[in-house]
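Design a sequence for this backbone.
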């Protein structure tokens, strides 16, 4: 066999083996560094005001992904009136060792959310989900997109067939684009609103203006409530382009603009057009639901009986058509 023949025979094999070796070394280096970083983060702040703690972890995915499975995962987020905690028995993260900086998250089975109310009392919501998938995409400035898809939510307070949340940074417009949808929501027990215990579909398309105010938050260098305060000071707004709530008997479609006042309460107006109102009014009469001023949104709708209404938010008061309907607590 001539030398040139041997070269064309062995050179591709040698190149392939070198490529495999390079990929293997790269994966082990990245995996080792990632494992060390996770160990250093356990029980400590991973961002201002955000703490992570887990009981154990395993890393796999050789040679192109990092698949990390956590046991007894806990996230704690600081708020002005106390911590909010989320617990999952099993939590997974998936990331590519090559390509764009995208991380996929998964959690399923029993989970628990606990938070501190304005009066200092603690509340806990135990729930289970069929599947929970989320993804986050980052660039050199921080997170630029986040997507969440939750299927089969169940708890003693409510159940839902599906919930989706999408947000992305729209740099040319200095906005965040938001899309939220929910299907088959059923309120249980004390959470049942007078408007109806079932929402067949709900959808929201909106945009958050003055998005630059959240740049430190996206970069992981600022607490979320400090970022919201910065956004409020920059006259940031939530532009509701489309909001639809399809209850059992009626459908409410609205749009408008909201912002936060100095006490962190919503301020602004949402204009709604209601279809199917007679069916709701019929049920309200049969159940003798309270109506009139200061009896909630449902009571004000019963009192007015109009298909076009404006929900106003100002000074901690919710109004329907200019009449007081309910009070507003600070969002944080």
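Sequence:
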């Amino acid at each position: 066999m001539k030398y040139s023949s041997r070269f064309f025979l062995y050179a591709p094999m040698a190149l392939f083996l070198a490529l495999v070796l390079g990929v293997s070394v790269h994966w082990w280096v990245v995996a080792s560094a990632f494992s060390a970083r996770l160990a250093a983060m356990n029980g400590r702040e991973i961002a201002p005001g955000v703490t992570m703690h887990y009981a154990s972890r395993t890393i796999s995915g050789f040679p192109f992904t990092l698949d990390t499975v956590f046991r007894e995962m806990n996230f704690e987020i600081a708020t002005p009136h106390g911590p909010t905690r989320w617990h999952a028995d099993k939590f997974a993260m998936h990331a590519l060792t090559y390509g764009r900086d995208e991380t996929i998250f998964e959690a399923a089975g029993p989970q628990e959310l606990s938070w501190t109310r304005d009066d200092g009392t603690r509340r806990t919501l135990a729930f289970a989900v069929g599947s929970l998938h989320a993804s986050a995409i980052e660039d050199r400035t921080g997170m630029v997109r986040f997507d969440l898809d939750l299927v089969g939510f169940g708890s003693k307070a409510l159940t839902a067939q599906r919930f989706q949340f999408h947000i992305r940074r729209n740099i040319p417009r200095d906005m965040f684009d938001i899309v939220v949808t929910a299907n088959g929501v059923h309120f249980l027990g004390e959470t049942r609103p007078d408007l109806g215990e079932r929402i067949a579909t709900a959808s929201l398309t909106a945009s958050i203006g003055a998005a630059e105010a959240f740049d430190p938050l996206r970069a992981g260098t600022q607490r979320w409530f400090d970022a919201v305060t910065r956004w409020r000071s920059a006259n940031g707004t939530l532009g509701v382009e489309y909001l639809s709530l399809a209850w059992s008997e009626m459908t409410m479609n609205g749009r408008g603009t909201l912002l936060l006042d100095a006490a962190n309460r919503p301020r602004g107006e949402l204009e709604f057009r209601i279809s199917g109102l007679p069916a709701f009014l019929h049920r309200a009469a049969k159940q003798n639901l309270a109506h009139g001023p200061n009896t909630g949104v449902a009571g004000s709708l019963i009192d007015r009986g109009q298909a076009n209404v404006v929900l106003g938010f100002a000074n901690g008061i919710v109004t329907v058509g200019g009449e007081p309907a309910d009070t507003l607590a600070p969002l944080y």
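The first helix runs from residue 3 to 41.
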